[in-house]
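Why do we care about 3D structure at all? Because function follows from shape, and shape follows, mostly, from sequence. That is the central idea of this module. The next example makes it concrete: a single protein chain, its amino acid sequence, and then its structure expressed as tokens.
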Amino acid sequence: MVELFLLSVQLTEEKLGTSEKTELDAHFENLAERSDVTKQWTEKILRDTEAVLTPNPGYRVEDFLFEKIDKKRPNRLSNLEYLGLDMIEAGNEFGPGTAYGSALIKVGQNEQRLGHIERDFIASSHHCFLVPLRKFLDGEMKTILKERSILESKRLDLDACKNRVRKARSMLGQPTAERDLRVAQSEFDRQAEITKLLLEGVSSSHTRHLRCLHEFVEAQVTFYAQCHQAMQELQKDIASERRPSPMLRVNSEDVDLAAPAHIPVSEQSYIMSMGKTNSSPAMPHAHPSPSPSSTSGGLRARVLCDYDAKDSSELSLMTDEVITVHKIEGETDYMLAERGNQRGRVPTAFLDVIN
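And the structure:
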């Protein structure tokens, strides 16, 4: 108790500037500063990584408590897995035989797959990155802080002994003070060496953290690659079963096949202008279009896919639009198509005749 009081007195005198303070060498101070910076940024990186892997702060607190009492963390469904479950349930409700229900089930199953991939990534990142950083802070860094605290106490004791030597006046008191000073100096030097060795070990910790960082990056690469592959497979799967829409386009307007096509008068000028952009400039001397006399029977046909006119005698087409076509006498590969006041030859292979 008396010793603690004397150390407090020494520290107060140093703060007031009435007592000298033993300074450590510059190399030691640099090592101590680097240790403090390492501790500060390691704690920040650890917190940020935990926030990325577990965005819910309540879950992070819960995981921390379970870890402190040495119990296994509960298995929770991720947001992706919850989404997948609801999609699958909705798809079964709408009917697996319907296009929408079937797609919902497939997408839901893929969301669950993504959730499992994410779970593996979190576990891998926790093992290869978070655990080493947390072990460094709870082990090596706490030891360094403890030894630095002991060193500070030894320094205060040494400076107090120096003051007692300076203040000793009797011949009996002087030898005792000098003996205490030698003992305090020896203990301070020994503690300084121990602390210095621990501080120099921070560089080795940086090397280990670098290796952990590489493993974390590899885990991220694997995670995103698996997600990308899963989404590509899902895209191909649902695209292969995509059914044609019952809505077709006539002159860039969506119409129902079951109902007669109707285009508002107010939109005719816009539709005509859009149609003109798909036709090639007129070339009066190149491949004249067949005359109406060479055709017979007006039919309606749906365009199967886009077609760009090769010259002025042909007509450009857009997927799913419905146009009027006429058979051309002596031609089996081409038909004469009409769209408003536009007319031109189109390949038969691009058409699906409706009536």
